[in-house]
Amino acid sequence: GWGWTRLLRLLVFTFGTDADPAGGRSDGYCGRILRAQTQGTRRDGHHEFSLRMEGDPEAYRPGSTYRVVLLATSPSFFRGFTLIALKEGREGTADGDYTGQFQIIDEDDTHTPRRRTRIQVLWTAPPTGTGCVILKASIVQKRIIYFQEEGSLTIQLCEKEHVFGEATEAPAMECCACGTAKYRLTFHGNWSEKVHPKDYPRRANHWSALIGASHSRGYVLWEYGGYASEGVRQVAELGSPIKMEEEIRRKGDEVLTVIKTKAQWPAWQPLNMRAAPSAEFSVDRTRHLMSFLTMLGPSPDWNVGLSGEDLCTKDCGWVQRLETDLIPWDAGTDGGVTYESPNRPTIPQEKIRPLTSLDHPQSPFYDPKGGAITPVAKLVVERIARKGEQCNVVPDTIDDIVADIGQEEKEEDDTPETCIYSGWSPWSACSSATCEKGRRMRQRMLKAQLDLSVPCPHTQDFQPCMGHGCSIEEPSTCMMSEWISWSACSVSCGMGMRSRERYVKQYPEDGSLCQLHTEETEKCVVNDECSPSSCVVTEWAEWDPCSVTCGLGMRRRERMVKMPPIDGSMCKTEVAEVEKCMMPECHSIPCMLSPWSDWSGCSVTCGRGVRTRQRMLKSDPAQCTEELEQTEKCMLPECPVDCMVSEWSEWSECNKSCGKGHTIRTRMVKLEPQLGGSACPETIQRKKCKIRKFRQEIRSMSRGFPSKSSCRMQPWSSWSVCSKPCGGGIQEHFMTVKKRTKGPVAASCKDRKEIRACNVHPC
Predict the structure, then answer these.
(1) Are 495 and 488 in contact (CB under 8 A)?
(2) Which residue stretches of the chain have pLDDT < 70?
(3) What separation in angstroms does the CA of 745 have from each of 656, 712, 736, 739?
(4) Which residues, at least 6 apart from 488, have a Cβ–Cβ distance to it below 8 Å?
(5) Which DSSP category does 39 fall into?
(6) 234 membership: H or E segment, kind and range
(7) What pTM, to 2 d.p., does this model score?
C-alpha cells in the first residue's frame, strides 16, 4: 500500500475524489496517515525537503498554470508524497476546503517504485474570487511522514488583484461585450546570445513565421496539458506554419481572423535595424479569444505563444492593452534537450508543457537552483479601434470608436523603409482576349537598397482580368482565396510530393458549382541520395539580398543538417547555394550624394521617440530623386512614473467631545512611484480642535445643583478595528453614561467618542 502508484492516487484523491481510485474505500490509507501524524512521527523544522513554484511568484493569476517542484537535498530522498492546496483558513475536513487542480508531469515515470529527489506537477490556479491559497506537501520515507505546516514545505499565495482594462484570467462562459474591436499584435524577440548565452546557436538562430487566430471557446489551437496537433508539430519541429494555417481555416465560423507575421532571421536585431513584426486582428462577442505560437530555431520542438487569451473584460468591454513576457514550451513531439539535438521523435507523443530550469543539465535553460527562466520574448497587444455600439459597465478611457474597422484579409503595403522604388508602371493588357480569366501586370524598379540585410520584394504586381466587354464580377464567378504555401515534402530524402490548397471564399450567386481546383501537387526533392551515408537537411532558407544594388551580383541561401548520416560519415549534402542576381541597371550618370550624417539624438528623454539623419545632394537635382532625410523610431529607458494620490477626505469629527483634541483627514495612494518617479506625499493630516460647550454647561449647572447631580460614566471602551488596512484609516472608542440623573444637568450628560488615525503606511 506504500508504493509510488498508491501515493499518486492519494494526491488525486486529496483533490475531491470520494472513493479510492483503486476501487476500495480511501479511509484506510488516509486514516493511516492521520494516525501517523498524531502518534508523533510528524517532524517540523527539517529543511532537507522543499516545495518550490517556478519563478517564486508572490501572487497567482486565476486560471493560470504553474509548475510546482518538490525537492530533496542530497543525501535525502523520498519514496512518496502528497500535495494539497487549501483555501486559507480551512482545515481540509470538507471537499470544499480544497481548490485548484493538479496534474502529474511524466505520469508514466511515477509508476517506478524508487527513491526520488525531485518530482514536478502542474497546478492550475482556482477562478477569480477564491482568495488566498496554501500549498502543503507531505514526504513519505519508509512509512515515516514529514508534514510541515509552515516553512520549506508550504507555499502561500494570494490572488493577483484585477486592474480595470485587463483581460479576464480564464475564458468566461460568455463574453458580454458589444460590437467588435481591432488589435495590433507586436512580437518583441529577446532570445539573443547576450541574454541567453549558454550554447546559443550563432549560425542559424531565428524565429519561425508566427501563426495564430482570434477564435471562439469551441476551438483550441494548443494548451498546456493537451497534445500537439499535426499543425502545431510542424511549427514546433520544422518552423512551417502551412499545416497550422490549414487547420485554422478549416474551423470556419469558429475563427474570425487568421494572425500571421513573417519569420525573423536572425532571431534578434536592434529596433533601429529591424522593426518588430506585427499583425492586426479583430474580435467580437463570440470570437473573443486569441492564440498564437512561433518556434525558436534551431530547437527540438520549442515554441513560445499564448493560448486562449481572453480580450473581453468582466466589465463588458474590450481590453485596452496586454503586455506579457513569454517563456518557451515543449510541444511533446521530440525528445531533444539542446538547441541542435538530433531528431528524436517522442513515441508515444507527450503532453505540451512549459520548459523549466530543472529539466535537464544539458538544457540551455538549466539552473540547479530552480530559478525562473529569463523570458525569450515579449508580446504587446494594443487595441487600435472599436466598431458598433458598446456596452461597457465602466466607461472606457480611450475614445477609439470608428465607423468601419476594415477588411481583415486586405493586403497591407509592408515595403521596408530601406527599399527605394520607382512609381508603378501602367497595367499591361489582359492576357485573355475572351471571357476566360486572365492576368494583367504592372512593374516598378528598385532604385536603391539602403540596408543589404533587409530584402526588397514586390517589384511586380498582378491582377485578375477578362477580355473587353466581359465582367470579372459576373454572378457565375467563384471567389477563391490565395494559395496556401506549399506543404513540407512527403519524404526526408529523395523524390517526393508536396501540395498546396486554397478554399472557396464565395460561391456563384446563381447557385452553380465552382469548377476551379482547390488543391495542387508537384514533385519535390529534399536530398538527392537515400543511403546510410546520406544526411537529412532542412528546407532552404530565404535567399540573402543581392550583393550589389545595381547590375549583376550574387546571392546566397543556406539550410541546416537535421540528422547526420547513420553510418557516422561526414555529411556530403550541400548546405549552401549561390546564384546570380540582377538588380536594376546602373546609371551612367550616378546620383551623387554625401554619406548619411550621424543619427540625431532621440526626440524624447525617456520612452519612445524618433531620430533623424540627413545627407547632401552633390549632383544635378534633376537627375536625383533619392530621399535626403530619414526618420526612425528610438527607444530610451521607460519614463519615471510619479506617485499618484487621491483627493483629501473631509475632516473627521474632533476626537474629544469637550476640551482640546484633534481632527484628521486622509487620502489614498492610487499608484506607487516607479522607475525613480516622485515619492508619495503625506497621506494623513491632523489639526487641533477645541470644544468648550460641554465643559461650560457642566460648570454653570454645578453652581445651582448639588454635586450628586453630576454625570456618572462607564470606562472607555476598547479601540475599534481600523477602518482601512493601509493608506490611513480611523479607530474609535466610546464612553457611555452609566447613570443619568434627573434635573437640568441630565440634558448635558451625553455619551462621548474619541477617534485616532491608524494604518497610515502606503498600500
Answers:
(1) no
(2) 1-47, 55, 74, 105-114, 141-150, 161-173, 270-274, 403-417, 433-436, 450, 467-477, 485, 492, 505-513, 526-533, 584-591, 619-623, 693-710, 740-748
(3) 20, 12, 16, 12
(4) 234, 238, 240, 242, 498, 539
(5) I
(6) helix 230-238
(7) 0.43
